[in-house]
Amino acid sequence: MAKPRVKVPKKAAAGEVITIKTLISHKMESGRRKDKKSGELIPRKIINAFKAQFNGKTVFEAALEPAISANPYIQFTSRVDESGEFHFTWVDDDGSVYEAKKSISVG
Hints:
This protein has a single domain, classed as Sandwich (Immunoglobulin-like), CATH 2.60.40.10. It has no helices and eight strands.
């Protein structure tokens, strides 16, 4: 089971550019390693997409490929003009979706 973690400032000034840090604990399997006992390829299982939205509007998204490390860390900036909620979504190869939400107060 993947575990997302997110750091968003609790407060910001209107128009401020903030830094957002995300990390999801996920083993990641490239699909190129073989099982030592059976010799069979271990199926690929990676986080293949990430999206960040603020008040329903996409502010950052990325397609992730097999070369990404385990426990992918993503850092980006976003300008905030109003209070609201960030919604973060990670999608796994098997269709699993992991989500996190963080609010910010702008004043």
